[in-house]
Recover the amino acids of this structure.
């Protein structure tokens, strides 16, 4: 039978749950509908961290970074296609987002360097493990404490409209039963469309046949729901390929591996790129190699410092190689070529300059085995475009005005990341704008 709440939220990923925490904390009744049997969506798969500038953690570590540099890095990485106002809101609220997550118990106390960032600003758990599952867990716990209801395996099918305003959603549960949830506001937080190959090809005819790093529920439902309610789209053609995914399963290896010292070799045993360039450039450079394949080279020393790497090894993604001869065998290259590439790289690290490719932050010389090799290819990773929103997350109509009662946050929206998302900015986006959506919707109730 039908239900009622002040606010209904579509999707229990990071954005939806952050919105729910804020709205419920302001005393509003909230129902979240989640179509999958688990919460967390793509947020569960955020294997890197959360970018933020001028944080208390950076200060403790003596890292100098500014909100302006963070803005500039993101704008440059996004090819200056980012919506400047939305980007400004994200970077200015980033430090508070980290504090907020840490107050909820996330323990994001390690800061490191990641692709496309001038300064170390990616925040992760202390052991360098993935941020996503931790964020999902603390938000889920907080929602339990606040008594927020999450209807699992319940799919939003349409947005109810009354007098030109969003007034709830029609849903269908796992048993095929349809019902309505009446509400005064609707927040769309249903994530992106990276797992919907028809939609991907529809917006980008060139992206055919790629694997995806996304969870099965990333089918872009919110884009269609929003459009039916009159929403405009922004940047919809900008779809990100992640450079380092497992060619068979699409499983993604975090950018942090390269940040922490891994290099890339092609199947001839040669380096071919500055490994720390932005995702789009590194992806394009890998696609130019034979078979569109490359190999991440890491070693035992890195494994000891990087929990993510240790996890990939444990899960069986890496080939362990005692010597460089074994590395050559693993990637199908001549031993001499591998030996020469590794020697050159060792010299570059010692000299502090990578004359060949201009990589900065030369931390590991990778001169000692055992080595761990991960075979990689680029896969569909993030959909930058989506519903057009303003800085307080109102969904904007094709005519350019805010649609009453309708809000959106997270990967379902467009504009924040421009043409290319910098690693570590997805979690910043969903927490900053998820919180704003929850607060704004709660504050505007009854208007
Ligand atoms: P974000 O990073 O923006 O928070 P996520 O992918 O983490 O996005 O979360 C979005 C969530 O929304 C996922 O758990 C997904 O299963 C859910 N979802 C997607 N479409 C629907 C829908 N039509 N109804 C209910 N939940 C949905």
């Amino acid at each position: 039978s039908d239900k009622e709440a002040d606010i209904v939220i579509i999707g229990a990923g990071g954005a939806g749950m952050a919105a729910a925490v804020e709205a419920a904390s302001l005393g509003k009744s909230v129902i979240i509908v989640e179509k999958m049997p688990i919460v967390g969506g793509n947020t569960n798969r955020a294997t890197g961290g959360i970018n933020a500038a001028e944080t208390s953690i950076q200060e403790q570590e003596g890292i100098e970074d500014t909100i302006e540099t963070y803005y500039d890095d993101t704008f440059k990485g996004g090819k200056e296609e980012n919506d400047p106002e939305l980007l400004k809101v994200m970077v200015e609220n980033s430090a508070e987002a980290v504090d907020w997550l840490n107050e909820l118990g996330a323990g994001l106390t390690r800061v490191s360097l990641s692709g496309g960032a001038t300064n170390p600003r990616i925040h992760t758990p202390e052991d360098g493990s993935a941020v996503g599952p931790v964020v999902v867990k603390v938000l889920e716990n907080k929602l339990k404490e606040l008594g927020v209801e999450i209807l699992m395996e319940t799919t939003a099918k349409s947005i109810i409209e009354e007098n030109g305003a969003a007034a709830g959603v029609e849903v269908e549960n796992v048993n095929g039963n349809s019902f309505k949830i009446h509400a005064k506001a609707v927040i769309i937080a249903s994530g992106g469309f990276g797992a919907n190959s028809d939609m991907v090809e529809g917006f980008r005819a060139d992206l055919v046949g790629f694997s995806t790093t996304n969870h099965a529920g990333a089918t872009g439902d919110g884009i269609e729901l929003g459009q039916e309610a009159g929403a405009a789209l922004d940047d919809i053609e900008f779809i990100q390929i992640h450079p380092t995914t497992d060619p068979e399963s699409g499983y993604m290896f975090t950018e942090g591996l390269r940040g922490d010292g891994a290099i890339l070799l092609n199947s001839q045993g040669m380096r071919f790129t500055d490994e720390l360039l932005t995702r789009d450039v590194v992806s394009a450079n890998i696609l130019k190699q034979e078979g569109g394949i490359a190999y991440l080279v890491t070693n035992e020393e890195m494994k000891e410092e990087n929990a993510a790497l240790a996890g990939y090894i444990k899960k069986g993604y890496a080939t362990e190689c005692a010597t460089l001869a074994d590395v050559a065998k693993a990637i199908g290259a001549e031993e001499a070529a591998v030996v020469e590439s590794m020697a050159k790289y060792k010299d570059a690290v010692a000299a502090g300059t990578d004359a060949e490719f201009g990589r900065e932050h030369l931390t590991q010389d990778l001169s000692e085995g055992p080595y761990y090799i991960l075979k990689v290819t680029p896969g569909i990773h993030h959909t930058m475009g989506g519903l057009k929103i303003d800085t307080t997350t109102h969904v904007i109509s094709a005519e350019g005005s805010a649609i009453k009662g309708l809000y959106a946050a997270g990967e379902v929206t467009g504009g924040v990341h421009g043409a290319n998302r910098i690693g570590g900015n997805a979690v910043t986006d969903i927490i900053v704008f998820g919180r704003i959506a929850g607060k704004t919707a709660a504050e505007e109730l009854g208007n």
Notes: The first helix runs from residue 14 to 25.
